[in-house]
Amino acid sequence: MRSSLPPLSAIGLVAALGLPGSACAGEPATGRAAVSEAIKLDQVGYLPSRTKLAMVTSAQATGPFRVRRVADGSEAASGTLGPAVADPDTGDTVRIADFSELGQTGSFYLDVAGVGTSYEFDIAPNVYASVFTVAMRAFYGQRCGTAVDMAPAYPGYRHPACHVAGTPNPDAAMHASSGATGAREAGQGWHDAGDYGKYVVNSGITVGELLWAYDAFADRIGGVRLDIPESGNAVPDVLDEVRFNLDWMLKMQDRDGGVWPKLTSERFGSFVMPHLDDGGPRYVIGTGSAPYKSSCATGDFAAVMASAARVYRPFDRAFAEAALGAAESAWRWLSANPNVTFRNCCGVQTGEYGDSDCSDERLWAAAELFRTTGASEYDAHFTASYAARGPAVTAGPPQSWPDVGNLAMFAYYFSGQPGAGEAVRSRIRDDMLSAADAIVARTRANPYRVSLRPEDYVWGSNGVVANYGLLLLLANAVRPTPAYLDAAADDLHYLLGRNSFGLSWVTQVGDRPFRNPHHRPSGADTNAEPWPGLLSGGPNRYGGDPVIDALPATPVARRYRDDQASYASNEIAINWQAPLVFLLAGLLPEGGR
Ligand SMILES: [Zn+2]
């Protein structure tokens, strides 16, 4: 853990030198036992008021453990490990060190008899503040069409303006699949993931969840300074950063209200910096036949623009009105074209985000438009359609880019509109709480205390974890329940090191972060460490790349490698990053910092 970022100092060097299990710089020579990778914990730390567990996977453990203060090695708490439990998802045998009773703040480490010591961690009310900042700032690092420089916190992480006129790849010509000709100024936006494409569907859930984070936790994150070019203006930095992608999305809307699904080259370029992208000309890409725009992209677009109209209104009335107009025009197109699906065609090989059912995107659009305007048209569509999904919210899987139905339900429930149907809200509430209760129950039963079921170890499983956390935090907003917060924090602990690999899955966060993301700037630049604050996709039971596919038979939660070539388990992506930001925001101290 590091209580303040940037942390590159010791961690990077130690890791770069390949010193296994080395302890941190500044460690006093007090005869502290060596760090053992068999003690898995949140390498950032814990909230004073929440449960505090570490997982021990060494058969050498004799039972007793102590929590010691970093400052002088003195004992702050002690206990006995719980019984050994076999975890079929990882193949690990896990014993729990429960030090929840330790309520004091400070920097600590575990000392487990027979095993060794843990990495250091903090206990503090604002223990996740610096992680929130670096995770949110990671979106700035994904900016397209402009120069990026992560200094002063991360000097050397920079690139000149990419994908702009005058380079080989201006954004962008109209592709043959778009039904239009010529070119279109569609710069800005975020690079989607490890590649440099820009995709409306994936931008939709990403921006939607980030706006939700602001909606739900404005008092905690509205004042956070991100050191972005807009810092210091009258708009919260979080909203300035989101605006950068919203402005791009607006450019993807055609005059008839429909929205083209993506802007990419026809094929992926090689592992180079973005201004050197050699993927070939970039295009606004469509479905290949009339009406050329897709319903899923248009539905996601309508939802987030409606949300933006509400969130930005206090800061920029003109933008709010433009966003609402764009949302309403998208809605009209969607009503006339409810299920135009998108598949790659016409020589295009980049990410597809193919989705055969756009009814959930339309439902989300209706809910957000209703939430923003209160108009009966949107209420009528939502009320007539939502029950067709079965339970409004289930215990899994959570929301994802192909299924944004949960976001529709949350938006309607929290609409605050006097016209909202109480019977509908009541049903959503009941289903949400039932889902949250079920997630809590299985998280408590999981040896690593993570919400994932075996079937959840899909491509981007770490995003699934974070989305469970988001669901739990919203359930807590429906009915404040400490167990929901504990389970949400448990999901964060998993992402920050309390997992079978003992890895923090956020770059440059914690003493042992993953280091080799499938992320072109991280692979192509000269920095020893990857770009900061990025969440790995995580274990993927289905594989799909040569690295994971070559693994021997392995339990589902072990199908991961910290290898740049493993795009199926170690890519980064904005749609996983967003729920991580939401989860961190929800665990920041109320009332800001
Ligand atoms: Zn770019």
Please describe what this structure looks like.
The N terminus is likely disordered. β8 and β9 form a beta hairpin. The longest helix is centred in the C-terminal third of the chain and has 24 residues. This protein is an alpha+beta fold. α5 runs antiparallel to α6, α10 packs across α11 and α10 packs across α12. The strands form 4 sheets. Strands 2, 4, 5, 8, 9 and 10 form a 6-stranded mixed β-sheet that branches. Strands 1-3-7-6 form a 4-stranded antiparallel β-sheet, with no helix packed on it. The protein is built from 16 helices and 16 strands. The protein is globular, with a radius of gyration of 23 Å. Zinc ion (ZN) binds next to loops. Zinc ion binds next to loops.
Tell me the layout of helices and strands.
Layout lengths: L7 H9 L22 E2 L4 E2 L6 E4 L7 E6 L5 E6 L4 E2 L6 E6 L7 E7 L3 E2 L3 E3 L5 H13 L6 E2 L8 E2 L13 E2 L23 E2 H22 L15 H15 L10 E4 L16 E4 L9 H17 L5 H20 L22 H15 L2 H10 L19 H9 L8 H24 L15 H18 L3 H14 L24 H5 L21 H4 L17 H4 L3 H13 L7
Parallel strand pairs: 2-10, 13-16
Antiparallel strand pairs: 1-3, 3-7, 4-5, 4-8, 6-7, 8-9, 8-10, 11-12, 14-15, 15-16
Helix pairs in contact: 2-16, 3-4, 3-5, 3-16, 5-6, 5-7, 6-7, 7-8, 7-9, 9-10, 10-11, 10-12, 11-12, 11-16
